[in-house]
Fold this protein.
Amino acid sequence: MGKDLDGYFSGDSTAGAGGFGGSSASGGTSGNAGASGAGATGATGAMGGSGGNAGSAGTAGSGGCGSRQPPVRPTIQDSGTGAPTTIWVLKDIVIDQPDPAWKDIGYDLDGLCTEPPDNPVECLAENASGPARDGNAGVDNAFGSTVIPLLKAADVTIQQSAQNNQNEGKSAIVVHVDGWNGEDDDPAVQVWMAETAYGVPDGSTDPGMPNWDGTDTFYVPDAAFNNGDVNSPIIGNDNAYVAGRTLVMRLPDRSAFPFQTSEGQVFLKLTDATLTGQISADGSSLSNVILAGRWAAQDVLDTLVYINICPNSLEYGLVQNLLQNSSDIRATKGTGGPGAICDAVSIGIQLTGYPGKFGGLIPSQPPVNPCSGSGGAGGTSN
């Protein structure tokens, strides 16, 4: 990590004057509440871009560019369990998202369309001269648009090393679903997720390269569950759902979502986070899996020690500067407004789910902190 990164991190973020949520929005037809042309929550939409009348006050709108959100929960009655337990294992992580790919990876987290001329935002970065623009349909993904391109200057293999580990069955993500009726819509399913320690190919008793054909068995560390109890997951939701054959799961705030890089393990501790994935017709796979949320700047800094970026180092200071320039959202939803300083980075990453089997728990190994002997913070990821 000894590369001189100063030239990559020293500038301000994207320029452009921006207003805050609730200001008049532009574009779209005459704006009713929450539709294109409407302002933020409680605001009154401005004249529509097509000459419509002012919209009425109401829920958040997206200024004419739309608002990409997960599918809503179906209103049908829960019919109970139909299909047996379903297990997918996520890999093929996409964190390197060159323009324009980042614009479609994620969701509209703030309910605002940060586009000219008004550029409504819920906050501004501490050192920013203006707001970062949204992706398509209001997608908030500063991680993909700004942060990763700069971090690649420190580690150009960041995505490839993460994918290689997952292909080997390490640091992939088990998605364990109970209570799914097997249909396109199910208003209530139970889901937990956990990082894999390794996979065991069919016919073997030893860890090895998975076949990824549904015959592999995956084991996860017991630290993914409270007191090692498989019925008490750290990352779980007993009221997830399936809508239009899309699995939708809200994640507990700041539950550590790990992935392995060549430098060590990164822990994503997100707030306002959602995981979605499109279930195949035969139920064997998940495509276009999206994990989106808000990654607090302090949580970003706290995970750096596990990838050998230590406090008081040049690289640590440069990442601090990057966050001061590029944070685009509040860590806690609903706390933005005029004068608010952004304290988080919006994030969207993409994965793909393959069939697999859950083999059980193994004793956890504490995360390695290379900085612990040089003034870095110790402790675990939780």
About this structure: Residues 185 and 243 are 5 Å apart (CA to CA). The helical segments are 6-9, 142-151, 158-167, 297-304, 314-326.
